[in-house]
Amino acid sequence: MKITVVGAGNVGAQCAYRLAQKQAGEVVLIDVVAGLPQGKALDMMQAGFIEGFSTKIKGTNDYKDTKDSNVVVITAGLARKPGMSRDDLISKNAEIIASIVKNIVQYSPKAILIIVTNPLDVMTYFAYKLSGFDHRRVFGMAPLLDAARMQYFIAEACGDANNIYAEVLGSHGDLMVPVPRFSTVKGKPITEILNPEQVNNIEQKTKNGGAEIVGLLKTGSAYYAPGSAAAHMAEAVAKDKKEVIGTCCYLTGEYGLSDVYIGVPAKIGRGGVEEVIELDLLAPEKKALHDSANAVKEICEKLTLPK
Ligand code: TXD
């Protein structure tokens, strides 16, 4: 397996490092900044002698080194600063995604593409359209991260970090859709364990999870959990795990939605998105998902694809 991580910044480096630890395949780390991916790759391989892995990590600025990658994780792009919304990043990141996708299509026409760059749902749609790949081979990482954040806030409220599951659907933004009814502690929905105020508090904190970290860091956005989440998804493909993971997927009628990328559970394996899982949603949950998808669609309709 050959896994390329595009962008050797905070998220890309954490993703590459986690992939090396997981021994999911050889890793290529590419960036436009000369020396940055090469330096980080050397540092990581030297850490391998302490951590006990011997994964080959190639740092490069040349797409020729990414040739015939099986999986490509795209993390390149601007990150948020305090006061910015994810949508403020659109035009610059669209340009960056366009240049990267062109290279990936040329050098790795059979790859599975995992998009991380924000605004996530819009950039994933954009990458899909530009690549011309089958939609199952292009998906985005965010719902897994958003669910991990919700798990953290549930653990905080319950004082118990064991056996927590969280379900988060929708876009990676203000219209994210945490679903408390399907979020459980030891198999019991949190709606049966916590009071409505506590549940509402968890939902709000989850939606604000990224902004909270941006506000504290001041110079960029979260990267440990995002990088780990991206590596987890790439590993699921590389090892053909067929694991059900919250994924930003292209919908073709599931949940009554089509021609949009939005967060839903999906089975992830060597084929990419091998199955979209349809949860039995109540009317208000379905409406929240549709509102979220419609907001993403509206932005995508305004994006012009470069020639
Ligand atoms: O859940 C999620 N999907 C996310 C998304 C969670 C966290 C961060 N999220 C987004 O990932 C964030 O809003 C950004 O759009 C990306 C990357 O965030 P990161 O924190 O890694 O940003 P950095 O540290 O600034 O790194 C970006 C790197 C940097 O090294 C640039 O030189 C490089 O991207 N870059 C490029 N690499 C290759 N090719 C091109 N064209 C390029 N342009 C910039």
TrEMBL record:
Any one of the GO BP annotations: lactate metabolic process
Function: Catalyzes the reversible oxidation of malate to oxaloacetate.
Species of the source: Candidatus Saganbacteria bacterium
InterPro entries referenced in this protein's UniProt entry, alphabetically: L-lactate/malate_DH (IPR001557), Lactate/malate_DH_C (IPR022383), Lactate/malate_DH_N (IPR001236), Lactate_DH/Glyco_Ohase_4_C (IPR015955), Malate_DH_type3 (IPR011275), NAD(P)-bd_dom_sf (IPR036291)
Gene3D superfamilies: Lactate dehydrogenase/glycoside hydrolase, family 4, C-terminal, NAD(P)-binding Rossmann-like Domain
Record: residues binding NAD(+): G7, A8, G9, N10, V11, G12, D31, N93, V116, T117, N118
Lineage, broadest ranks: Bacteria, Bacillati, Saganbacteria
Family per record: Belongs to the LDH/MDH superfamily. MDH type 3 family. Belongs to the LDH/MDH superfamily. LDH family.
Keyword presence, Cell cycle: no
EC annotation from Swiss-Prot or TrEMBL: 1.1.1.37
UniProt keyword list: NAD, Oxidoreductase, Tricarboxylic acid cycle
Keyword Cell division: no
Name recorded for this polypeptide: Malate dehydrogenase
